[in-house]
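User: Predict the structure for this protein chain, please.
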Amino acid sequence: MLLGGNLGDRSYYFSSAISLIRERIGVIISVSSLYETEPWGFEHENWFLNQALIVKSVLAPEEVFRKTHDIERKLGRKRDNSRYNGRIIDIDILFVDEEIFYSDDLVIPHPRLHKRKFALLPLLKIAPKLRHPLLDRSVEEMAVSCKDTMKVNLYKPATTGKKSK
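Assistant: Here is the predicted structure, written as structure tokens:
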């Protein structure tokens, strides 16, 4: 999974989303560092935070998809018809192991994953050898060959500037 968001208290929304994923979807096996990234596909004054998760679940992909949308709604996300816009939280399913899944609402692996550094770099830290079943390339190989030029930086939260005594 990939968490993303650029509005409001991003750290709060991420920690809340992670708690709800644990509660409603499955066991979180691994969590990447946070990355701060330029908006992809549109302009916005706020950059995104992104974080990859490996989640073990007994749920079917469509049920996981429904539950991620429920979590987004619970946290206050409002969807509109625009694909690219600012949001408080976005939860994408990138892979289900190395399976291929198609439905009207969901395509796995995520169809644009290999084109997005903001997804590949966090995933690279927790699952570099995971193979894309359609492209027959690992996350590591996709990250190296990705042509995306958007900035993706390891997130460093602002410090308060206070000195400890």
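The chain has a mean pLDDT of 92.
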